[in-house]
Each structure stands twice: as C-alpha cells, then as structure tokens.
Amino acid sequence: MLVLGAHLFASKGYTAMLETALSIGANTFQFFTRNPRGGKAKELDENDVNTFNARAAAIGFGTVLAHAPYTLNACGARPEVREFALMTFQDDLARLEKTPHQLYNFHPGSHVGQGEEQGIRLICDMLGSVLFEDMTTTVLLETMAGKGSEMGKTFEELRAIFDGVALSDKMGVCLDTCHVHDGGYDIVHHLDDVLEAFDKTVGIERLKALHLNDSKNPLGAHKDRHEKIGEGYLGVATFEAIVNHPQLKCLPMFLETPNELDGYAAEIALLKSLQK
C-alpha cells in the first residue's frame, strides 16, 4: 500500500491535518513547522498532540513529514541568517520529539556567492550543532533544482554534506521529482539509471521520502516550478513508474503540486490507480 499524502495547512493542529488527510484519501501528510517565510512557531497543544499520536497509531497512519521554512538558509553569507537557521532548526527538532519517529525536511540553502565548498562546510557546521544522539526524527536533505546558488542540486553535493556530519545516521534524503528533473537528472527516460547514480554516490538506503511534483520546465532548466501530476514535462507515465518501482514504492510520498484539497484528492486517486 502506498504511503501517500499532500502538503496541508497546520493552523488547526495535528489531529485536524490527520482528518483532512483521510478525507482526501491520504494516509500521511506534510506541513510547515511555522510560516514558510519564517517567524515564531505556534505553541503546541499537548491534547492535540496526544490525540494525534494515539489516533495515528490506532489506524496505522503513515510517516509524517514536517517541512522547515523556505527562509532557513544554513549556508547564508550573513551571520544573522545562519543564526536564524540554527535557532529554527533546534526549536523544530525539539518540538518534533512530541510526535516521535517522523521526518523533518529542509532545503540545504544557497551559498550566495561564497562558493560550494564553503556552503557545504556551513551546512555541515549547523547540522553538527543541532543533531543529537537520542533524537527520533530523521532529518532530510531535499534534492534541489539548482537555481541561483542553491546547494543540493547534485548527488555529489548531498554526499559531501553527509560526509561532513558526525551523526549522519540521523539523516536521509527527500527526492523531489520536479527538482531532480529541473536539475538535469532524466527520471522520465532513465529512472533506473538515476537511482543507480544516487545509490553509488549517496546510498539508496539514505533515500527516505519523495516529493511528487510534475514540472513546468524541460529537463535541466534549473527553475523549480511545480506542476500538477501529468500536466508537465514528467507526465503520468513517470509517476506510474515511480509508484511501482521496487526501490521507491514503499517510501512515504508527498504531493506539493499547485492544488486545493479537491485537486489533491484527484491526484491521490490517480496515483493509486497506477499501482500494478
């Protein structure tokens, strides 16, 4: 059975997101830990958290993915930008221990002219400061499209980050289908070859989740513009291959397509129908 969900609004809490997910045919969800542009996170409601944990366990709900705000830039050039990333990361990881054994995804950041080597060093420094031995959350590096000075656009950059973090066993990768396509990896015609390259460079065991997004852009555009499933350059056949692939079909999958709830429900039904 696919573990499949969509990005939902977190304003009403965990239990509301769980019920919304079920209403659209999903068995997991993704959410922002705080406003995607940053700022203070809403206080956790202990009753809501406890209700969610109990309900999720009772129905076998899938692994949930928390997404860091877009403004988090671990390798920013300005110290205050990196400090915001550090403080946000620490706060989010502490909060996520209330819902143990979930996922926390973040964009590695942009080096903004400092160079890739310095960008990787700064990302590793932050991760080395925030990861801890007994944490239950798995921190995910997201594959990026490579616009501007984005880090994480190649498997080699991801591997360099893993190599620079002592507690890299607490980490994994979220592969975004739009981003890798826009980054130049041809998952439309050569999905197996891309996964083989990922395995040789990063290790397939580190692939922990998928963002399912079609792309408005051709291969290698480095632009990162999501499209609805089947309406972009990836096409339905690519997603059919993904949901049936032996190395991918058991991973939690999250839609970030330009949709409202009814659109997500339709896409979830479509993806389920593609299973063989």
Write the layout of secondary structure elements.
Elements: E1 4-7, H1 14-23, E2 28-32, H2 46-59, E3 65-67, H3 79-96, E4 103-106, H4 116-130, E5 138-142, H5 155-163, E6 171-176, H6 177-182, H7 191-201, E7 207-212, E8 214-215, E9 226-227, H8 235-244, E10 253-255, H9 261-273
Parallel strand pairs: 1-2, 1-10, 2-3, 3-4, 4-5, 5-6, 6-7, 7-10
Antiparallel strand pairs: 8-9
Helix pairs in contact: 3-4, 4-5
What does this structure look like?
The protein is α/β, with parallel strands linked by helices and 276 residues long. The chain contains nine helices and ten strands. The strands form two sheets. Strands 1-2-3-4-5-6-7-10 form an eight-stranded parallel barrel. Strands 8-9 form a two-stranded antiparallel ribbon. The longest helix is centred in the first third of the chain and has 18 residues, at 79-96. The protein is globular, with a radius of gyration of 18 Å. The model has no long low-confidence stretch (mean pLDDT 97).
Low-confidence residue ranges: none
What is the share of helical residues?
25-40%
Q: Termini separation (Å)?
A: 11 Å
Number of helical elements: 9
Main sheet? 8 strands, parallel, barrel
